[in-house]
Amino acid sequence: MLSSPTALSAAALGRAAAPKLARLLTYRTVSSRVPEEMEPDQFEAFIAALPELFPLVSAALQLERVNGFGLLYRWPGTASPEASPEAAAGDPADGRGPAVLMAHYDVVPVEDPSRWDYPPFAGTVTETSIEGRGALDDKGALAAVLEAAEQLLAEGFAPAGDIYFSFGNNEETAGDTAAAAAALLAERGIRPWLVLDEGGAVASGAFPFVSAPLAVVGVSEKGILDVELAVEDAGGHASTPNRMGATARLARAVVRLDRRPFPASLPDVSVEMVQRLSGSAPLPLRLVLGNAAHLRGALTRVFGLLGGEPNAMTRTTVAVTQLRGSKGSNVLATRATANANIRVAVGETVASTVSRLRSIIRDPQVSLRVVEGNEPSPVSATDNAQFALLEDTIRTCFPDAVPVPYIMLGGTDARRFTSICDAVYRFAPFRMSAADRASIHADNERLGIETFGEGIAFYKALMGAL
Description:
Blueprint: H1 7-25, H2 40-53, H3 55-60, E1 62-66, E2 70-75, E3 99-104, E4 124-125, E5 129-131, H4 139-154, E6 163-168, H5 177-187, E7 194-203, E8 214-221, E9 223-232, E10 236-237, H6 246-259, H7 268-277, H8 283-290, H9 296-306, H10 308-312, E11 317-324, E12 331-332, E13 335-344, H11 350-361, E14 367-373, H12 385-397, E15 402-408, E16 424-432, H13 434-439, E17 446-448, H14 449-465
Parallel strand pairs: 3-6, 3-7, 7-16, 8-15
Antiparallel strand pairs: 1-2, 2-6, 4-5, 5-17, 7-8, 9-13, 9-14, 10-12, 11-13
Helix pairs in contact: 1-4, 1-14, 4-14, 12-14
């Protein structure tokens, strides 16, 4: 059993590695679905900086470029055959296969740099934090993985089984690099024993009336679906409008979707989550949460009333995010469209979701077109050796936190690996307050220096146990 790192050692770890992460934050590796908005030289510069910042990793691990800017490192294990990356990795003597640690280094755009306390791409290090776009999502995790490996190599450590680092370059646009990396491993006959990507965190204030931080580990994630609603009409001059034109009919469909949410239920993973955190709740609530399996219906209704994240945990959600109509202020629309961004709950499918949309809208003149979609991810087990390893590592590095499984509401690159691994989990080993979580994709994204150090210690302990 590894000893728990002290706050001082975590702070020291973070302080020593902070300049490395700060350097990585200076590269504008912004993802966009519009190729002209990308800056390929910034991605190349980011990749070129890694050998300078992590020389032992660069010397000891094999690196392949995947799908252009994706990075796939292989750290050969002592129980695996020393061979080229094309060789299938052998299983270590204890029966474990290779492990894959994931992160991505692309970031979302900055809307207004003037609203930031520090320039978003300056990589500023303060007394307590590392400031910049990508610090939490997700360059912090990438830097923590590489720094942990750098320190282990300096200590002479070698893993028993192969460890892969898969670093994506287009996660923010739901790109295909992670899928290409998974396909590459599949072609080589490599089936990982464990895959760990971003997702949950050591979250404070994440559940009402529970004071202890929760180490939420994603065991699945909702499907992501974009559906275009469209209405065609004859159009004409705005001075002579007809009743129920394209925009009015579309608006009625949008209102119907808003007024009739999908049915709610509390999935088994959420029941287990509630039961696990019950021990940290005050006594009256502890009895309720501890009996979540028997009070599923009542808890489902309570979660729905709480709104926000608790409500989203219970159902498929629909958010109309884009509306388009006429191009002229005095012209009736001949075509009006809306984009519905939908997060498909575990247990539902893309097909069943579209079918329910049609039944809610109840208008054959509103056409539905699936723009892009993927099914919810399979649910990884919580009673296996892989989850037990994550729990043990969490308890070692975050002794005050309660490890709990949950279903991620957002999407990650990890879903691309579920076809080659049955044990895919989503957990970023960083403490995050509600304010920290709110800064992701928003202004003033930052990672605390001590928090960064705790993340390095986590990855170091996890890799040391593989």
